[in-house]
Amino acid sequence: MQSTSADRPSLLVLGGTRFVGRAVVEAALADGYRVTMFNRGLTDPGLFADAGVETVIGDRTEDLSALDGRRWDAVIDVAGYLPEVVRRSVDALGDRVGRYVFVSTISVFADLSTVQDEDGAVLEVVDGLPRIQLYGANKAACERIVLDAYGERASIVRPGLIVGPHDPTDRFAYWPRRFRRGGRVLLPGDPAAPTQFIDVRDVAAWILGCVAAERAGVHIVTGRSMPIGEFFAACQAAVGSDVEGVWVDTETLLKEGVEPFMGVPLWNGDPEFAAAERIDISRALAAGLTLRPPAETLADTAAWDAARGVPEKEGLTPAEEERLLNAR
Prior knowledge:
Order of helices and strands: EHEEEHEHEEHEEEHEEHEHHHH
Largest sheet: 7 strands, parallel
Structural class: alpha/beta
CATH superfamily of the largest domain: NAD(P)-binding Rossmann-like Domain
CATH class of the largest domain: Alpha Beta
């Protein structure tokens, strides 16, 4: 017997049209969920107009009353950044959702100079906290709100660097694009230094698995750590270009004023975050996390990036790259 719409599990997605939310909605539709999105209708408002997705327009920072009187099997919160906003969502939805899945971040950890797992200490929101830590501290506070309210019906997802098609940044797409351009390519740091990321589609699959399997608690969800030199070799293989890779060590980059994390995509360069690319994912792997090969993520991201044809927003300009190459 064919199932009716009412027989299918229902999801409320807070957000849903940008990056992680978009991947969640796409995966949920493929798995047969009934999907409602609650957002302001500002980013790609017609994205799922023909896919049977209901969009409720509203601003969660102010008023969620448009959702009153309705129930869902789960809510996926992909865009909760401030404790007061998440508190408002939790209070408004209460027991009208079966499970609350909150997408957090590994930036919650108080110490990323050493390898962390889910039991590591997290940041607290205190006066005078540096901006780079405030994001993680706020996310940690949001986690506590969800866990306190929902207990075993709460799923906390802590991704690392999320990459793949539709990434609004150039942190990852910069590299296949740069290798496609050819010539001398600046490779930052040490080829043995670790890098760690996860495809957005694998994050979406994990999130939906939290709903289907009633997977409770906190899980770090990122990819396996790999030497950045292997990553660059995979980039070259993905685009098939003829390049000359030139390594510029971290000491030189810092001396030349390159900002850690932001100056060259995927390059760390900050000892306070030396273990940010060596996060322990064993708990999530044991609970069923599956990861596609990095080569697949690279190929799909390169194809998407080439098709969209927009200017680079992040990474080294050709002139800056040449300056740093000459500073070796």
